[in-house]
Structure formats: structure tokens, C-alpha cells
Specification:
Elements: E1 20-25, E2 48-54, E3 75-78, E4 84-88, E5 91-97, E6 101-105
Antiparallel strand pairs: 1-2, 1-5, 2-3, 3-6, 4-5
């Protein structure tokens, strides 16, 4: 099975290993419904994002790889403390295990 990946905004392709996925977190609201602008330090980071790359799956005892349930381009909800945050260029990405994903958002 070939893994799937797409380029980040900076043009870099990321290939996670095993059952890991790379997620681009959705941006959060900058103002409240009353019109108050919130600084970055006061905003909760959303636990939603879009998958931009997936790994090959976990290596099984028989030498084959398990297939991941998520695909590139899907919007997902994940645990708020999931994954490792890192930056590529000016965008913030998350590297997490597939187990940290709680649901796929179907629109």
C-alpha cells in the first residue's frame, strides 16, 4: 500500500512513519460574539483539523502493514492533548498517532 501525502503551504512534503498522521489544525475564532478581540494567549486551540499526510500503517507480525482508517484531506476531531506540535515555515502542524483521532467529520 502506498502512503498518501500532499505538500504543505511551504512546499515541503512530510512522510509520517507507521500509524502516524500529520494534521493541520483549524484556526480558532479571533473575536467573541460580542465583538471582543481575543489575544492568542486567551484562545483555546481547536481540536479539529485536516489530515495532510498519513503513514504506511503498523507493521504486523506476519510482515504486512495494517491500513489506516483515515485519508488525506479528511477533517477530524482529535484529543486536545494529542500529538507533537511543530512548525514548517509559518504553519503549525501536529504529528499524532491514528489512535489520537476521535472522529472524522463528514460533511
Amino acid at each position: 500500500m502506498a502512503s498518501a501525502k500532499k505538500k504543505t503551504k511551504s512546499g515541503i512534503q512530510l512522510q509520517p512513519l507507521g500509524d502516524r498522521v500529520v494534521v493541520q489544525r483549524e484556526s480558532s475564532e479571533a473575536t467573541t460574539s460580542g465583538g471582543i478581540v481575543l489575544p492568542d494567549s486567551a484562545k483555546d486551540k481547536p481540536a479539529r483539523g485536516v489530515i495532510i499526510s498519513v503513514g504506511d500503517g503498523v507493521l504486523l507480525e506476519d510482515g504486512s502493514r495494517s491500513q489506516l482508517q483515515v485519508k488525506v484531506g479528511e477533517r477530524v476531531i482529535f484529543s486536545s492533548y494529542a500529538g507533537e506540535t511543530f512548525e514548517v515555515g509559518d504553519e503549525e502542524l501536529l504529528l499524532m498517532r491514528e489512535d489520537d483521532i476521535l472522529a472524522v467529520i463528514d460533511e
